[in-house]
Structure formats: structure tokens, C-alpha cells
Design goal:
Layout (H helix, E strand, L loop, with lengths): L8 E5 L15 H17 L3 H8 L1 E12 L8 E11 L3 E10 L5 E13 L10 H10 L1 H9 L1
Antiparallel strand pairs: 1-3, 2-5, 3-4, 4-5
Protein name: 4-hydroxybenzoyl-CoA thioesterase
GO molecular function, one term: fatty acyl-CoA hydrolase activity
InterPro entries: 4-hydroxybenzoyl-CoA_TE (IPR050563), HotDog_dom_sf (IPR029069), Thioestr_dom (IPR006683), YbgC/YbaW (IPR006684)
């Protein structure tokens, strides 16, 4: 993954509470970085998935989390967490994530998060709504290219 693969980044500065005894970011914090960046990604899209879930009773469940560590991230380091929607399925969204040094192409971590859209009453999957699908396709040029080739 390259920085140029993304159009959204969320900045962080590593706090002392996020490092471990080896003085690098403790592995579980990477998922927190990813989750926070995805939330900010949706905030920038101006799509209120939390409000939509309250209204409809339909929400996303995380079904897959993948983190690949390329290089250590250390205390007080500034990073950019990049997010893009990698794929839209019938009832799922897949997010591609990467952690770069602030403003650089230095790649520290890659990841993938997969959400499945689920009716909270029945716990059955439901299709991703057309409005959300369109917002994501408009944001991510590679999605429309993939659909055109399908």
C-alpha cells in the first residue's frame, strides 16, 4: 500500500500510555487507531451511521480485523492513519487501512476491517443501503472502476 492509494488520513501523536515495555506501541492500540480513523472517515463523509442505526435498528458488526506490522511506532511519534473503503459487498464493507509517518510515505502498518450490516433485532444480515453505497462510491474512485469492470 502506498500513501497515494488513499484520500483520507487522520493524525495521531503516540502517547506514553500507548507504548509497552519495549517502548513501542502496544499491539492492541492499532485497532483503536483504525476504529477512530474509520469514525473520522465517516464524519468527513457527512454520513451519520450512528444516527442511522438508532433510527433503523440496523448496524454494522465487525467480523474481521487484520493488522500487519511493518515497522515499530514509538512514543511521541506523529502518524497518519489512512482509511479507504476497499470493497462494498451485498451486506458488507471492507476497509483498507495503513499507518504512515506524519506527512511521509514511510509505511508502518497495514490492516483490514470488515463490517457486516445486521438487523439488531433478528441478528440477520441485510443489504448495505443504496444511499451509503452511493456516498462511498462517490468518495472512492477505485470502487466505481471496480464496478465498471465487473
Amino acid at each position: 500500500m502506498k500513501r497515494s492509494d488513499f484520500t483520507f488520513w487522520h493524525p495521531f501523536r503516540i502517547r506514553y500510555s500507548e507504548i509497552d515495555g519495549q517502548m513501542v506501541v502496544f499491539n492492541a492500540h492499532y485497532l483503536t487507531f483504525f476504529d477512530t480513523a474509520i469514525t473520522e472517515y465517516f464524519r468527513e463523509l457527512d454520513h451519520d451511521i450512528t444516527g442511522e442505526a438508532r433510527e433503523t435498528g440496523i448496524d454494522f458488526h465487525t467480523v474481521k480485523s487484520l493488522v500487519e506490522y511493518k515497522a515499530p511506532v514509538v512514543f511521541d511519534q506523529e502518524i497518519d492513519v489512512a482509511v479507504r473503503t476497499g470493497r462494498i459487498g451485498r451486506s458488507s464493507l471492507s476497509f483498507d487501512l495503513a499507518i504512515f509517518g506524519k506527512g511521509t510515505d514511510d509505511l508502518y502498518t497495514t490492516g483490514e476491517i470488515v463490517w457486516v450490516y445486521t438487523d439488531q433485532r433478528t441478528h440477520k444480515t441485510v443489504p448495505v443501503g443504496e444511499a451509503l453505497r452511493q456516498v462511498l462510491i462517490e468518495r472512492e474512485p477505485h470502487l466505481s472502476e471496480a464496478l465498471a469492470g465487473a
